[in-house]
Amino acid sequence: YVNLGLCYLLTDDSVAILAALSQLESLNLGSCNLLTDAATASLATSTSLRKPTLSCCEALTDQAAESLILF
User: Fold this and answer.
1) Neighbours of 17 (CB within 10 A)
2) Which of the two ends of the chain, N or C, has the fewest CB atoms closer than 10 A to its terminal CB?
3) Rounded distance, CA 69 to CA 7, Å?
4) How far is CA 40 from CA 2, 17, in A?
5) What pLDDT digit, counting tens, does each position of 28-57 carry?
6) DSSP per-residue letters across the chain
7) CB within 8 A of 3, min separation 6: which ones?
8) Residue 71 — very low, low, confident or very high, per pLDDT cuts 50/70/90?
9) Contact, 22 vs 46, CB < 8 A?
C-alpha cells in the first residue's frame, strides 16, 4: 500500500513510474490535483494494482473512469 494522497505536486509522469511497480496492489492518490487522465491510463496498464484511490482529483474527467473500469 502506498499513500500519496494530498501530494499536490505529484505528476502524471510520477504515476507512470508507480504503475510499473510489480508488487503495488493499493495506491491512494486522493486530492492530487495535477493528475490528468494520462495518470489513469498509466494505472490501467498495471498488472498488480487492485485498488487505486483517486478521489477529489479535480483534473480527472469521465475518460479517467473509463480507463479504470476493470478495477
Assistant:
1) 10
2) N
3) 24
4) 16, 12
5) 999 999 999 999 999 999 999 999 999 999
6) -EE-TT-TT--HHHHHHHHT-TT--EEE-TT-TT--HHHHHHHTT-SS--EEE-TT-TT--HHHHHHTTT-
7) 28
8) low
9) no
